[in-house]
Design a protein that fits this description.
Blueprint: H1 7-23, H2 37-42, H3 45-71, H4 77-106, H5 110-136, H6 148-174, H7 176-191
Length: 197
């Protein structure tokens, strides 16, 4: 299949991101006991935490996906496949967030939940990098908005992601709260603008 415009890839991806980010709120259950509503709402803090972190993470992946595709002028079949893998990972994140919230709420299985959540982020980072590396291979799918040196600079920043998420996952396997703090810190880091220099 010859390389084609990226407009349909971006439109489909935007739809998946929108659905995934919306599904995150479904894990927050309305308290059944409204006689003690304030207490019941406060008890939902694990769900609020998982929702907030995950919402910002999905939004972050969407924003950087948008920036990435500003430089990708065409999509071939391998790029479509890699993008599909990334979207599959994004679609899985609401489940990982729900597991994390349940473990924090129950006080059991927190380490496993953080490892599942962090592992999901690591895999997503690998797929994200695979899209960019395939697109910049020989500069074949990139446009004139970025030169090879700029593409390498973006690669260096993107490649940090899976390694840093893996470090957070490893820390979370020992101390779950520490892993979550690393994930939250990475949200701040990766929301900073992506520069091509």
């Amino acid at each position: 299949m010859p390389a084609a415009s990226t407009s349909r890839v971006e439109a489909f991806s935007d739809g998946v991101f929108a659905i995934a980010i919306t599904l995150l709120v479904l894990e927050i259950r309305v308290p059944e006991d409204t006689r003690h509503l304030a207490h019941g709402l406060l008890d939902l803090w694990p769900s609020y935490l998982a929702f907030g972190v995950s919402f910002l993470l999905v939004g972050l992946v969407w924003a950087n996906h948008h920036v990435m595709f500003e430089h990708i002028r065409a999509a071939d079949r391998p790029l479509l496949f890699l993008n599909t893998l990334l979207l599959m990972n994004v679609s899985f994140l609401p489940f990982a967030a729900a597991v994390l919230a349940a473990a924090l709420r129950d006080g059991h299985g927190e380490r496993t939940a953080v490892v599942l959540y962090g592992g999901t982020l690591v895999v997503g980072g690998v797929f994200f990098n695979a899209i960019w590396e395939w697109a910049r291979r020989g500069h074949q799918l990139l446009g004139t908005s970025i030169d090879p040196a700029g593409a390498r600079a973006v690669s260096r920043r993107f490649l940090l992601g899976p390694a840093l998420y893996a470090a957070g996952t490893a820390l979370g396997a020992a101390v779950p709260l520490l892993g979550l703090l690393v994930f939250a810190a990475l949200i701040v880091f990766y929301w900073l603008p992506v520069t091509a220099r």
